[in-house]
Amino acid sequence: MIRLVLLGGPGSGKGTQADVLKKKYALVKLSTGDLLRQEIAKNSELGKQAKSFMNKGELVSDAIMIGILEHITADFEAKGQGYILDGFPRTVPQAEALLSMLGKQGVTLSTALLIDVPEEELVRRLSSRWTCVRCSATVGYPDGKPEGAVCAQCGGELYQREDDKRETILNRMSVYKKNTEPLIAYFREKKMLERVDGFGTFEEISGRILDLFAKKNIR
Ligand code: ADP
Ligand code: ZN
Q1: Which of 71, 151, 188, 219 qualifies as a cystine partner to 156, CB 3.0-4.6 A?
Q2: Which domain, by its residues, includes 17?
Q3: Which ligand 1 atom minimizes the distance to the CA of 57?
């Protein structure tokens, strides 16, 4: 059973690449960002707590996130369902909690895959990113969104996420560097890290990831 963590800055394309792996290996993808946005849309207690942090580009507390993940990973384990975590862990305490919950479940992480994209490229991508209201697919329009453009996956309406506006992007980048980038060294020291170059077209990057999985015999 595959248990995968995807690492990469905001806008690194990890959510989209997760969809490729999901199809290929029959995994489920757990995007913590999508999960929190759904809670906000439902106006649930969790959504209310998360909203102000998310709109500023700050992180939701470790305690909340770890509690959610504990339930969900246990549930996947019970079903024998392989999974991809997109957006978790995002801090070293979250990574420690993840490895300890897997330990308690008697299993190990298959790998932590880093999609490595230079910072300038991340900022450029995020500022042109549009998201589908219905299926969360994203699309980049560097020259502005053409009038009437809709989601290529499902025909849903496209919107620009509150946290994809310029000042928030810069804040998210600094939150990423401070809290999440240390996870690269963390997983590298545990010999759990794999890295692919995240520069190039979507197909080039997914090609690199699938080659890596074949080579490392991850399946
Ligand atoms: P990105 O495009 O930056 O990867 P996500 O959709 O993964 O964005 O997450 C959006 C926001 O949701 C984050 O900026 C943060 O506020 C919150 N969030 C998502 N996952 C986590 C997590 N594991 N820990 C804390 N906050 C999180
Ligand atoms: Zn869609």
Answers
A1: 151
A2: 3-117+175-215
A3: 14
